[in-house]
From TrEMBL:
Feedback inhibited by histidine. Pathway: Amino-acid biosynthesis; L-histidine biosynthesis; L-histidine from 5-phospho-alpha-D-ribose 1-diphosphate: step 1/9. Residues 52-206 form the ATP phosphoribosyltransferase catalytic domain. This is ATP phosphoribosyltransferase. GO terms for molecular function: ATP binding; ATP phosphoribosyltransferase activity; magnesium ion binding. It comes from Labilibaculum filiforme.
Length: 286
């Protein structure tokens, strides 16, 4: 049997669906059995292990899994030797310090000598050290936001995304400790054979991610506006310009980045673009 790459993904929880979805978008079919803890891809040399998120960095460092999809926050917290190969654009959140809303926060020194509840003691300790602060860190594994209300701590350090859990518990975010998103990580000593499989997987993932971050754009413009419009539209190499059936008009095709999107659209309109169409890209092979 040929060599296979082993990937760990979260067994259940926030990361699982998006992790399996990105593998699917890479054209990889996994035969499972959701209750199975181990499954094989039918059309790619990949074996999937379903593990607890918090155990994944250790498994990858030990080489039980070659690669994994895991939150950067967990990689940082577990302080394992791993390569972070690619950010994946989902499960975006931040680790933040929060206090009861009636506290008058005066700045970082406020935390000196305070008791802070967290599930991320290492990340918190690093943040405190970097700011020359000393706190009493109280480690709990979940429901951290309840700690100040039940007299367990003065403040918390926990993950935030929408902020609604903080709000519901009468807390206010006051400092950002780190930002995180799901990423693809790898063991530092992967064999050459497995590295070759990993390169193929990474190539597919990057094509999928690039497609998500970009849109195909088509528009019409009078020929005398084409030069100005092209200046606003970089494209993958350069925009395509085709004549319209109507004399004196052209159709311009290009690719624009999601981040620049609305700014570019405004510029295009100002420069005389008409009939602008935006189309999602399925894969973008770079
Ligand atoms: N509110 C949130 N918004 C976005 N991403 C989040 C949020 N909370 C957690 N995450 C990200 O999702 C990851 C998994 O969170 P989840 O709550 O599913 O698992 P867990 O309970 O931390 O871990 P385990 O699988 O070990 O039980 C976190 O490590 C973090 O990267
Ligand atoms: O800012 P928000 O959008 O409200 O998200 C933040 C909450 O999400 C996470 O908990 P989760 O829902 O994963 O529950 P858990 O603690 O049981 O893992 C995190 O620990 C926060 O409590
Ligand atoms: Mg959680």
């Amino acid at each position: 049997m040929g060599e296979k790459l082993t990937i760990a993904v979260q067994k259940s929880g926030r990361l699982q669906d998006d992790s399996l979805q990105i593998l699917k978008e890479c054209g990889i079919s996994i035969d499972n059995g959701k209750d199975q803890l181990k499954a094989n891809a039918s059309n790619f040399p990949l074996e999937v292990l379903y593990l607890r998120n918090s155990d994944i960095p250790q498994y990858v460092q030990d080489g039980v899994a070659d690669i994994a999809i895991v939150g950067e926050n967990v990689v940082i917290e577990k302080q394992k030797e791993l390569d972070v190969l690619q950010k994946l654009g989902f499960s975006k959140c931040r680790l933040a310090m929060a206090l009861p809303k009636d506290v008058e926060y005066t700045g970082l020194e406020y935390f000196n000598g305070k008791k802070i509840a967290t599930s991320y003691p290492n990340s918190l300790q690093q943040f405190l050290d970097a700011n020359n602060l000393k706190c009493d860190i109280h480690v709990i594994s979940g429901s951290v936001e309840i700690a100040p209300n039940i007299g367990l701590a003065d403040g918390i350090c926990d993950l935030v995304s929408s902020g609604s859990t903080l709000f519901k518990n009468g807390l206010v975010e006051v400092e950002e400790v780190l930002v995180s998103e799901a990423c693809l990580v790898a063991n530092k000593n992967i064999s050459n054979l497995k590295s070759a499989i990993l390169e193929r997987l990474l190539f597919r993932m990057r094509s999928v991610l690039a497609a998500k971050n970009n849109k195909y754009i088509l528009l019409n413009a009078p020929n005398n506006k084409v030069a100005d419009i092209i200046k606003v539209l970089p494209g993958m190499k350069s925009p395509t310009v085709l004549p319209l059936a109507q004399e004196g008009w052209s159709s311009i095709h290009s690719v624009i980045n999601e981040n620049d999107f609305w700014g570019v659209i405004d510029q295009l309109k100002l420069n005389g673009a008409e009939g602008i169409l935006i189309i999602p890209i399925q894969k973008m092979v770079l």
